[in-house]
Amino acid sequence: MGLSHGVADAAAGFLLGILPHQTSWQQTSLLILLYNLLAFGHQPIAGIVTDRWQCPRAAVWVGLGCLVLAVLLSQYQPQGAIMLAGIGSAAFHVGGGALATLSTPHQTLGAGLFTAPGVVGLAIGGALGIANDSAQGTLILLLLSCSGALLACKLPTISYSCEIDHPKAFQFPAKNQNPKSQIQNLEFVDRDWLLLVLLSAIALNSVVWTGFQFLLLGKTSVLVAVAIAAAIGKLGGSILAEWWGWRRWSISALILAIPLLVLGESHLVTLLPGVALLQSTVPVTLTATVCLMPHQPATASSLALGLAIIVSGILVLGGVSVMLGITGTVIGGVVLTIAAIAWSIREQEQIEN
Questions:
Q1: CA 46 to chain centre
Q2: How many other C-beta atoms can be found within 10 angstroms of the C-beta atom of residue 269?
Q3: CA distance 98 to 5
Q4: How far is residue 93 CA from its own chain's centroid?
Q5: Are 236 and 280 in contact (CB under 8 A)?
Q6: Nearest to residue 95, comparing CAs of 153, 49, 37, 163?
Q7: What string of DSSP letters covers 55-76?
Q8: On the CB side of 76, how many CA atoms lie within 13 Å of its CA?
């Protein structure tokens, strides 16, 4: 599933990258905005529909199919291609996020394996598009291969046995499979607050990440290097969080990330490890969100991978990063993220005490 994520995001990145070669800068800006609204803002709708129809695997196929059509249309109808790419990306992320996260129940490895290749694929695809490389045929072949591979993959069975709008559907089993990463059984109202604070942590983390992406616009090679660092961070974080505990790892990684990111504004050698540490918390927050909504995994994925991201994008476009500067954005955003994670992710040893 992770490889499919990389290919899907590479196709989306390619379509966005070639827009300046096809349309005016004004049209390009509007189409990029349209893509983000569809790919991220549309995810909650796609997630709700996917859970209601209980079809995460079908959502992945729909997403890959839309991306194939988008790549085919890219030379003739860029506007239609971007719309298809946005819809396809939303469908793929909610279905793939649900399946990948639940493939390792109550553990972060599945989320890490799913999210890590996506950021690299997006960066490489964007670089190919900007270079106006003729990669359409290769991308279509890869997308079709990923679709076919899903037929042979043994994917997890998702329990939709409870009514998804009933409070009991949000209760965890009596024992969590990983005692180091438990978000223990809580009252339904408490669970709503946990979810809200957890999504706030994801959005704040994304504000810092997006701020650096804006800072590096036009520096294609650096963006690819940063994407690779982020992927390493996500995969490494998913492993280290299981070894050391979700809460401990997330807080420690973010504390270490602050000085590295502040210095990273002008030093690539500190930016890369800082980005890796910042992004290493993504598998934890995604898995925690799905744990809070065990019978609505696609909706949970859409909130973590879509809604929180679009909120952060609105904040950045609204001028938060410009107003605070990179240093202010890093310090403010990461400190608030630490506070949100510290409050929302409760571990076994805390509850027993």
A1: 15
A2: 10
A3: 13
A4: 8
A5: yes
A6: 49
A7: -HHHHHHHHHHHHHHHHHHTTT
A8: 5
Residue with tokens 């995604």: 286
pTM above 0.85, yes or no: yes
Among candidates 287, 47, 58, which has minimal Cα distance to 164? 47
Residue 293 gets which letter from DSSP?
A: S
Which tens digit of pLDDT belongs to each residue from 288-347?
999 999 889 999 999 999 999 999 999 988 888 878 888 899 999 999 999 999 998 865
pLDDT digits (tens, 9 = 90+) for 175-229: 344 444 444 444 444 778 889 999 999 999 999 998 888 888 888 889 999 999 9
Tens-digit pLDDT profile for residues 80-101: 999 999 999 999 999 999 999 9
Measured between alpha carbons, how far is 228 from 272 in angstroms, rounded to an integer? 9
Phi, psi (5° rounding) for residue 268?
A: -65, -30
Q: How many CA atoms lie within 13 A of 152 on its CB side?
A: 4
DSSP-derived letter for residue 179 is G
Residues with Cβ within 8 Å of residue 56, at least 6 apart in sequence:
50, 94, 95, 96, 98, 99, 158, 297, 298
Q: Give the whole-angstrom CA distance, residue 263 versus residue 269.
A: 9
